[in-house]
Amino acid sequence: MVTKSELPQCPVATTVQLIGSKRKLLIIRNLLVRPWRFNELQKSLDGISQKVLTDSLRSMENDGIIKRTVFAEVPPRVEYSLSELGESMRPILKAMEEFGNEYKNQIDEK
């Protein structure tokens, strides 16, 4: 996790730094529904490479946005879910969903 002094002063810039990539937003979108396993996430995100997904998940775990749970099974099972901090982003993604739907509706009317 980064220190407070390493974050931008602007709170919007801080949020963008944490979740600003397209891939991270789509991962969070999926995790808002339920916990996911790595391969499920990769299949649900068109064109994402294993490296980009791994890097995104590690980054969000380090930032405290997601939790990684390893189950003591053979073979080992790993699930990713949102932390309490990640769950607090639900209104942000809901607002983005509403904006996207409104934008699509406006385009249809033209």
Give a quick precis of the structure.
The protein has helices spanning 11-19, 22-31, 38-44, 50-62, 84-87, 90-109, and strands at residues 36-37, 66-71, 77-82. By secondary structure, it is an alpha+beta fold. It has a single domain, classed as Arc Repressor Mutant, subunit A.
CATH class: Mainly Alpha
Gyration radius, rounded: 16 Å
Main sheet overview: 3 strands, antiparallel
CATH architecture term: Orthogonal Bundle
Individual helix count: 6
What assembly state would you assign to the polypeptide chains in this entry? single chain
Overall SS class: alpha+beta
How would you sum up this structure, described in words?
The chain is 57% helix and 13% strand. With 110 residues, it is of the alpha+beta class. It has one domain: Winged helix-like DNA-binding domain superfamily/Winged helix DNA-binding domain (Arc Repressor Mutant, subunit A, Orthogonal Bundle). Strands 1-3-2 form a 3-stranded antiparallel beta sheet. A hairpin with a 5-residue loop joins strand 2 and strand 3. The relative contact order is 0.14.
Considering the chains and any ligands shown, give keywords for the structure.
alpha+beta; Arc Repressor Mutant, subunit A; three-stranded antiparallel beta sheet; 13% strand; globular
Secondary structure layout:
Elements: H1 11-19, H2 22-31, E1 36-37, H3 38-44, H4 50-62, E2 66-71, E3 77-82, H5 84-87, H6 90-109
